[in-house]
Amino acid sequence: MIKPSTTFIKRGLGLALLSFTSLVMAPSAIAVTKAQTQQITQSIEDALGTSGVKVLSITDVKYFDGLFEVVVSHAGGKKIIYSNGSGSHLILGDLIDSKTMDNLTEAKMDKLNAIAFNKDLPLKLALKSVYGKGTRKIAVFEDPNCGYCKRFRREALSKLDDATVYTFLYPVLGQDSIDKAQKVLCAADQTKVWDDWMLKGKTPSGAGDCNPPISQLVQLGRGLGVAGTPTIIFEDGTRASGAITAGELTKRMSLAARN
């Protein structure tokens, strides 16, 4: 239950869009005090603690006087909330640089939720596809009934010429998604059956009764804080959400390979 003393500003599905420019708001250097830390923490955990939110850190936002960035843990991952100095008003949303249109919140979230690619991802559970030499690596979490996943695979993944793609089936959109995932994972050629469905609309067939690791895959995604599909994880452990373009995918893969 959210207490009435705490106000949230929302856009769409619980998000608020903040645009700013350095011409309007000069960077500030107001450090959060111990009293503010305690007050903001108490306010947020009182308001959102029942949903499993726990405050991890609080820092000032240099673009706005009196606004603080609060990193919280939630559903196995880390998220960002913005607060005033007392914690009486919270903003759930993204900071956007109006000059470059860079999403500063998303960039920070990438770093906060970064993982060790080879250590934290059980690659043996994934479908493996090699494009060209397969030098660079990415992992993708996809639901069988995710339209954005199909578009991403069609318009971006299929255009790769040097990558190894590990696809983790993440059936979270209902029982039909689970049924399709089971049939894919029980197929003799899992990758072909998956591509036939995602790219050509050929429904997976078969019994799907080989006891595939569906629960393990769902637990993996939740543990990594995968909130939606597709979610792409790069070699450096950073991630991107949604059907990003082929150009953006290639750019992010190149950056990750250099880190």
From TrEMBL:
Secretion signal span: 1-31
Domain Thioredoxin-like fold, chain residue ranges per copy: 132-252
Pfam assignment, any one: DsbC_N
Coiled-coil portions: none
Subcellular location: Periplasm
Keyword Endoplasmic reticulum: no
Keywords: Disulfide bond, Periplasm, Redox-active center, Signal
InterPro entries assigned: DiS-bond_Isoase_DsbC/G (IPR033954), DiS-bond_isomerase_DsbC/G_N (IPR018950), DiS-bond_isomerase_DsbC/G_N_sf (IPR009094), Thiol:disulfide_interchange (IPR051470), Thioredoxin-like_fold (IPR012336), Thioredoxin-like_sf (IPR036249)
Disulphide bond isomerase DsbC/G N-terminal domain: residues covered: 33-106
The keyword Chaperone appears for this protein: no
UniProt family annotation: Belongs to the thioredoxin family. DsbC subfamily.
Function: Required for disulfide bond formation in some periplasmic proteins. Acts by transferring its disulfide bond to other proteins and is reduced in the process.
Protein name in UniProt: Thiol:disulfide interchange protein
Organism, as annotated: Limnobacter litoralis
